[in-house]
Structures
1.
Amino acid sequence: MAKDLARLRGSAPGGVVCPLCLAEYTQQNLEDHTLTEEHCVPQSVGGRITILTCKKCNNTDGSVVESHVKSFLSMLDWFEGLSEGRADLHLPEGHVGANLLWTAGTPDEPRTIKVVKKASRQAGVEELQRLISSKGKFNLTINFGVNAQKCRRGLVRAAYLCLVARDGYEYVFSGSAEGVRKLINGARETLPIGILEVAPLLVFSEHFVAIPLATVGFPQVLLVVLRLTLEKERYFGVLLPAEGTSSLEAIAGLAESLAGKLLEGAGADGKIIYRMVLGSDPLDIPSCRV
């Protein structure tokens, strides 16, 4: 990164700039850990590509939004019966805390409730056992702790850092990146950037792919497709302004018009490297609490 910055500035290599806050750092800051190595896509959801960011942007700001991306994937895994979710059962005899596995509900794939004794009242546990044996009804709440707005920021942050890893400071100092940084750093209240669920028909080998959308009528928009993994690989597309577009509002609302489109791209040798169908916004939900 130091050589890339020196190339742009026409000076000798010696420092780097945090691509998120634009604060300048030197080699010494690597040694005192105020400049840190960060995964572009959070490591907790399968990220492998790294880049240098400052400690505050990485450990403080990054961890806040990263947790919501991971919680969102946990929620999707739970709905598909791939992982357990923490449930609270509200019974007249007392509260019961449990881990719930939501499967097909068949003899081969039964739905299971594992009581967490430390988080439960014994009277409530006994009442739950009675209700289950008598096929009674009870209410439960599962809170995945997902804030949709912070999850959006986390996905945009990952897409932005992936572009920095690919294009270097040329992208960081471009006009199109300035508005994205304001959004990532919380300087903007609204999030006028589309998030799309992506169904790959041909799985690409990289952890992300950046696709110019000129072929489908949007010449100044990039679709950055991220590959995220907990129990299952999932793909999400983030719409970002390409060079020459500084306004986020200019690309707001495109997600809906892109839903259902097939995207296909080939390398220099003509071999298809990606083929995917774009879906709807997976975060366009009234609540992440069920």
2.
Amino acid sequence: MMQTTASLEQAVDEFRRVLPSATATAQAIDRREPWGLIALNAIDDGYVDFAAQLSAFFDAGQDDARGLAGEPIETGAADSAPIQAPTGMCPECGLVAFGLDFCGQCPTVSEGETCKGWIRSAVNDGDWSACDPCNGAGREGAADCAHCNGVGWLFMRPGGFDGTALTALPIIGRRR
């Protein structure tokens, strides 16, 4: 188990040695991207256990010297400040993830059934567009924005996650 930033770096270096260079995870490690983006790429590449280890490291309260992607912007004007773009989404139920909040299997439970989907990485340029009516804040006055379900962003990747989806864009996500 990774307990310090040094042990995290060592574990990532060891894992990188066995990864094929063509994987998005290997490329993210090589570019020294934030740990959160590395974890999301690992999920997409099928390295769910590795992503879970990274997530557990941060759940234990460890700092990320590189910074986590997807942390909310801290401001005094919470009602009108834009929310930073999501980092992932479940294609099955539309749950939107920020940072490493939901790294791995989707936690949604509906009518006693757990969603069968997995949070998929959505960190590429053009994946998200700030909602125009609420300017990316997710709120209109005291209520959630009706246009984006309070997310503040609309999923815009052409073709969806696999590049072949014929669903109309934007795809409107939802919060927990």
3.
Amino acid sequence: MSTRYFALVSGLVLLVMGLLSFVSGFLATPDVLPDLRIESGFGELFGLFPVNIINKLLFLGFGLWGISAYRRFVSARVYSRWLCVVAGIAAIFGLIPGFNTLFGIVPMYSNQIWFNALVAIVSGYVGYRVATDADVSAGLPYEMGASQRGLNNIRSTNTVDPLRKDDIDRAG
């Protein structure tokens, strides 16, 4: 899956989760309430993921960002990397008592841990891997590593990579 399509798909999933978390029919009331300072909108989305208003806004924010990042490879890569970092930190915090509600602000425990870990792993793979041939053929001269820049100049005669041109000038 290309980086751009990952941003689109993950953005749509997070946006839908954020929107559905505001519909009371998709929220279950848990048997035991955690110690939260921000209890507004608290429930378990699909009966699985503990959410409050902060989680809902984060889902909506990352969802909209992912959809808008779909337009450009660089934006999609930045989105994927930030999603990896934020979800990874949330997964780790969810494992630590006291941090699993971020001092009562955001619930990050229960099934939210594995969801955040899965999101972090997939977005980390997509965000930090080397550009694929599909990304290169889309005409992305400045977003890639040095080895990919040379490959892009061979495939596309319409773009001139200034870094490659400087290397040629210095050699000649």
4.
Amino acid sequence: MHRRLARFRVSRPGNPGRIAATAAAAAALLVLPSSSPAQDGGPGGEAATTLDGVFTAEQAERGEEVFSETCARCHPTSRFVGATFQPSWSQAPVSTLFTIVRTQMPFDNPGSLDRDEYAAVLAYLFELNDLPAGDRRLPASADSLRAFTIRFGTPGGGGAPPRPPPDR
């Protein structure tokens, strides 16, 4: 995974590769998930997924604030819902998404947010995709997040149809 992330390292302002790096980092958010499933944590010993309520409503609310303050100037929420986002991230470990966002964003100062803020942004993205909130906070470390797999739809069922992107 480190080699994969290294390809998308963001250039500092003033470097000639800045535009290409921006495009590469944005593309990474949409198409770079790993295919390895989580190993443990769900009900009955199966892998925990984002359908199991792995974040709190309060965490998603905080994530919306962080997204509005830090991310929305470059990223419309429509890029992170439904058919634009779900096919690329379904079955990926949450840790992969967390690592990419934490090491690449915000573009002008990657890694500058607190780890809890990055986890809150992920909780917000999950909420945008109609994933259920629960009573436990999404962890703020890649090691802990390896226990969770991104899944969309309804527990035990097919998938719910994607909702239209919010106007934000």
